[in-house]
Amino acid sequence: MRFRLTAFGLHLLASFSALTLVLGGMYLGWYRWPGWYLSSVAHIIGIVVMVDLVLGPTLTLVVANANKPRRELTRDIGIIVTVQLTALVYGAVTLWLGRPLYYAFSTDCLQLVQASDFHRDEIAKGRKQNAGLAPYWYSLPRWVWAPLPKDSATAAKIVRSALSGGQDVIQMPRYFKPWTDGLPSLRDQLKAVDDIRYLSTPEKQTVKAQMTRDGFTPDAANAIIFWGGSRRLIAVLDPATLQIKALLKPDSRS
């Protein structure tokens, strides 16, 4: 039994170290709040953790036997480690492809923009026409303003594309501008919680209760919706400085 427990402990330690290195690097680089929440990657992490920290070491505990031939034991543990590495690579690649690259203000809301949102041709155009704000493999999350182009025909074409499920301006880095340039337009889009669309009455009540608790005024024009795929936040800003003071979850169960 001592041999089994030693093998289990060493396997658990190695698995924990590898998982911490990969997930820790992803979190510190790209997935810090609100990226982790808005990108909805909890299910991916759950699979990786289940395989690497639970299933792998537990199977080692089962197969480890001091009386088993070393060749057979090496084979069994090798199979387990292969499955673990497959799960870890799957998780790492999925997180990498979906990593948050921008938090963009566009039109009337804030939006999460992930690496997987960009087409190669748009990345190439962005690097050629707007190199300073275009995405690169090493890019970390940035706050940007993504306005529609001034040319009305081009803007209308982008709107039609977005409405039909095609590319939106937040997927076209050639149009990105510095965050500070969009602050005057952002101020015009701030609303009181009751005036924010896409929130149900219970969700509005939840947000207003959180704002009151945190010392904000729910009836003031100081909030804007923040989209991230299937999840949403409400960003509360200081109307004077336009600094984001809080990011609140409208669904208290999430």
C-alpha Rg, in Å?
A: 23 Å
What structural class do helix, strand and pairing data support?
A: alpha/beta
> What does the average pLDDT come to?
93
Order of helices and strands: HHHHEEHEHEHHEEE
Number of strand segments: 7
Number of helices: 8
Quickly count the domains: 3
> What portion of residues is helical?
40-55%
Q: What oligomeric state best describes the polypeptide chains here?
A: single chain
Summary keywords:
alpha/beta; 7-stranded mixed beta sheet; 3 domains; 50% helix; 8 helices; single chain; 254 residues
Compact overview of the structure:
By secondary structure, the protein is α/β, with parallel strands linked by helices. The protein has helices at 2-31, 35-38, 42-63, 70-97, 120-129, 152-163, 183-189, 201-213, and strands at residues 100-106, 109-114, 142-145, 177-178, 223-228, 231-237, 244-248.
